[in-house]
Amino acid sequence: MLRHAVGAGFDIFITADQNLQFQQNLREAPLGVIVLVARSNTINDLVPLVPALLEALTDLRPGNIRRIISA
Q: Which pTM value belongs to this model?
């Protein structure tokens, strides 16, 4: 999955899969990863995370993992 994102030219991978960091070696990936942590992956639960997501996009670097957690 990450290999395809890199091959397609993406710099950042955004997911709601909280297990991804245990399934992939994200620190070695040539892209940044943002994990959205909400009650569910429905749009109503994810929309409140958008402001923090937009802020994270401004300074996330390759090999960094950022978890954005709903309040």
A: 0.86
Element (H, E) at 68: strand 65-69
Residues across the chain = 71
Provide the pLDDT confidence category of residue 27 given band limits of 50, 70 and 90.
low
Phi, psi of 62 (to 5 degrees): -55, 140
d(CA 61, CA 71): 25
Domain ranges of the chain: 2-69
The enclosing H or E element of 67 equals strand 65-69
The residue type of 21 is Q
Please name the residue that has the structure tokens 């401004």. Answer: 58
Q: How far apart are the first and last CA of the chain?
A: 29
